Amino acid sequence: MAKGKKQAKEVKPSYMTTREVAAFLGLSAGTLCTWRYQGKGPSYYKVGNAVRYKIADVEAWKNENVKRVKLTN
């Protein structure tokens, strides 16, 4: 790298759309919309009409709400 030139840092997105969260959780976008209306599901943010979910909040919600199933024979 030449002296005086800065290397570009890769910026990772920290927010997800409703569709991205739905795919991540294996749900429909409609289910997330219903959950928002009912006060359920992961925390979300609104900027104007845009709904965004912080990735860390979605992962935390998933970890807190996952149900482990024990299989028996």
TrEMBL record:
Against Pfam families, the record matches this protein to:
HTH_17
Q: Name one GO molecular function term.
A: DNA binding
Q: Which InterPro entries match?
A: DNA-bd_dom_put_sf, HTH_17, WH-like_DNA-bd_sf
* Residue intervals of the Helix-turn-helix domain: 15-65
Q: Which UniProt keywords apply?
A: DNA-binding, Membrane, Transmembrane, Transmembrane helix
The transmembrane residues are 21-38
**What is the name of the protein in this document?**
DNA-binding protein
